UniProtKB/TrEMBL annotation:
Organism encoding this protein: Massilia agri
Protein name: Sigma-54 dependent transcriptional regulator
SMART domains assigned: AAA, REC
InterPro entries: AAA+_ATPase, AAA_lid_NorR, CheY-like_superfamily, Homeodomain-like_sf, HTH_Fis, P-loop_NTPase, Sig_transdc_resp-reg_receiver, Sigma_54_int
Annotated positions of the 4-aspartylphosphate modification: 54
Domain (Response regulatory) ranges: 5-119
Residue intervals of the Sigma-54 factor interaction domain: 138-364
PROSITE patterns membership: RESPONSE_REGULATORY, SIGMA54_INTERACT_2, SIGMA54_INTERACT_3, SIGMA54_INTERACT_4
Region (Disordered), start-end ranges: 412-436
Keyword field: ATP-binding, DNA-binding, Nucleotide-binding, Phosphoprotein, Transcription, Transcription regulation
UniProt keyword Transport, yes or no: no
């Protein structure tokens, strides 16, 4: 079999030669061009496994070649070589369709990694006729889903950072996994990190790892998320929750493609593709000074927006079938009359995760695996639920099982003093005082947080805003008080 053929486009003879030698040593065939004109002629004539072009050429910009190659039917992966410190150029090239970029002075180890990654693209599994990838878990064939699949297929052929936006539970992580699975990185790890769930003090160690003895308790060397995802994809979920000091460190790691473990003296190269996701408006976070503009610019090279379930309601029936088959076994559960219509009429603020929870709960109530409208619990919260004690907006009407269990009222309160106009909260003794103050306060806090979550349909950002605390504080309290939201177990 012929060796893959690479085209190097650079007017600097020394650099061109260095690249040629490196690629030849990797067992590849190499053509080279010193101008755009020469490059165009070669691209016309041959099929390249990778094109590597400098940004500035004597007769034009490498960016022009990026645009032409990306638009052509051949669509070979094309990577750009950018001058040191010109991050903007790299971002512009990635947006124009470049597969990846490499900065001058060219680090040969990084070059080799990039070339191997490009070569693996041709080995990636081919999409099926409907545009879905083999083994895909993504269900739906609505126009919105078809367009999403096509975008995912294109994005999988690049190393550019992607920012996925979409409502809670709309499938952001699933889309990120799909991109990874269809990419040349598929055989390497996909690591998803919930940025809002890591205590601030542990962040650096979690992301970059540490050396033995770096701090008290560091009894062994440990890798961080970057090392764990090396060669693969690192998904930063709820990226808007990253504290500002960590944003600076993350930006550096992304730009330099190197990280330093805590306590280490040298940096190590890492090759990860970053996919970030949030249900917040990151641009707004930038305006509000909560998110660094430079990091936003770096993460947001390509945007992928996931439609909410209510905007692709045609997908509801196949989704219900697939979820029921997964939960009960194929053909074991069916829908009674009117159930699909009831589901179609519902707005699903929690999207597909909420649909999964609704069906799981309904199955628990269903007789002989036949789900009736009444089993869906789409309208009223159960008596005794936190939501039932407080008027909640219509959208928050589903009483999720897990939270309901967690929010079960505390042991029956003793009678409140007769003169007291306010009913005594649960857990108070006959003297109107709690017998265990910390336990009592935890219960009050648990109850209030539960109500805020119910009212906002488990949107942690909104719940935190209602309570005047940060999302981080809310997550921390939820963890401490063992409040489990339905989506935590999905
Ligand atoms: N198109 C789809 N087909 C089948 N299942 C889906 C689809 N989209 C999402 N799901 C399922 O819905 C659930 C939620 O998806 P996912 O975790 O990807 O959402 P998310 O947007 O990342 O959520 P969050 O905003 O809470 O981080 C998962 O169980 C996922 O497998």
């Amino acid at each position: 079999m012929a060796a893959p053929r690479i085209l190097v486009v650079d007017d600097e003879a020394d650099l061109r030669e260095l690249l040629e030698i490196t690629l030849l040593k990797m067992g590849l065939d190499v053509d080279s061009a010193a101008t755009l004109r020469q490059a165009r002629a070669l691209v016309e004539e041959h099929d390249y496994a990778l094109i590597l072009t400098d940004m500035r050429l004597p007769d034009g910009l490498g960016l022009e070649l990026v645009r032409e190659v990306t638009a052509s039917s051949k669509a070979a992966p094309i990577a750009v070589i950018t001058a040191y410190g010109s991050a903007e150029n790299a971002v512009v090239a990635l947006k124009a369709g470049a597969f990846d970029y490499i900065s001058k002075p060219v680090a040969l180890d990084a070059l080799r990694v990039m070339v191997r990654s490009a070569l693996k693209l041709s080995e990636a599994p081919a999409p099926q006729q409907d545009g879905s990838a083999p083994g895909s878990r993504m269900i739906g064939s609505s126009p919105a889903m078809q367009s999403l699949r096509a975008q995912i297929g294109r994005l999988a052929r690049s190393n550019a950072p992607i920012s996925i936006t979409g409502e809670s539970g709309s499938g952001k992580e699933l889309a990120a996994r799909e991109i990874h699975a269809q990419s040349s990185r598929a055989s390497k790890p996909f690591v998803a990190v919930n940025c809002g769930a890591i205590p601030e003090t542990l962040m650096e160690a979690e992301f970059f790892g540490y050396r033995k003895g770096a701090f008290t308790g560091a009894t062994d060397d440990r890798d961080g998320f970057f090392q764990a995802a090396n060669g693969g994809t690192l998904m930063l979920d709820e990226v808007a929750d990253l504290p500002l000091p960590m944003q600076v460190k993350l930006l550096r790691a992304i730009q330099e493609r190197r990280v330093r473990k805590i306590g280490a003296t040298v940096e190590e190269p890492v090759d990860v593709r970053i996919i970030s996701a949030t249900h917040q408006d990151l641009a707004r976070c930038v305006e509000q000074g909560r998110f660094r503009q430079d990091l936003f610019y770096r993460l947001n090279v390509i945007e992928l927006s996931l439609p909410p379930l209510r905007e692709r309601i045609d997908d509801l029936a196949p989704l219900v079938d697939a979820i029921l088959a997964r939960l009960a076994g194929p053909g074991q559960a069916t829908l009674g009359p009117g159930v699909l219509d009831a589901l179609r009429a519902y707005s699903f603020p929690g999207n597909i995760r909420e649909l999964e929870n609704v069906l799981e709960r309904a199955l628990a109530f269903a007789n002989d695996g036949v789900i009736e409208v009444g089993d869906l619990s789409l309208k009223a919260a159960r008596p005794g639920d936190a939501a039932a004690r407080e008027p909640a907006p219509a959208a928050a009407s589903v009483a999720p099982l897990e939270l309901a269990v967690e929010l079960e009222p505390a042991p029956a309160p003793a009678a409140a003093p007769v003169a007291d106009p306010v009913p005594a909260p649960p857990g108070l003794g006959p003297n109107g005082l709690p017998s265990n103050l910390p336990e009592y306060l935890s219960q009050v806090e648990r109850d209030i947080i539960g109500r805020a979550l119910q009212q906002t349909n488990f949107n942690r950002t909104q719940a935190a805003a209602l309570l005047g605390i940060s999302v981080r504080q809310l997550r921390y309290q939820m963890q401490k008080l063992e409040i489990v939201a339905p989506d935590d177990n999905a």
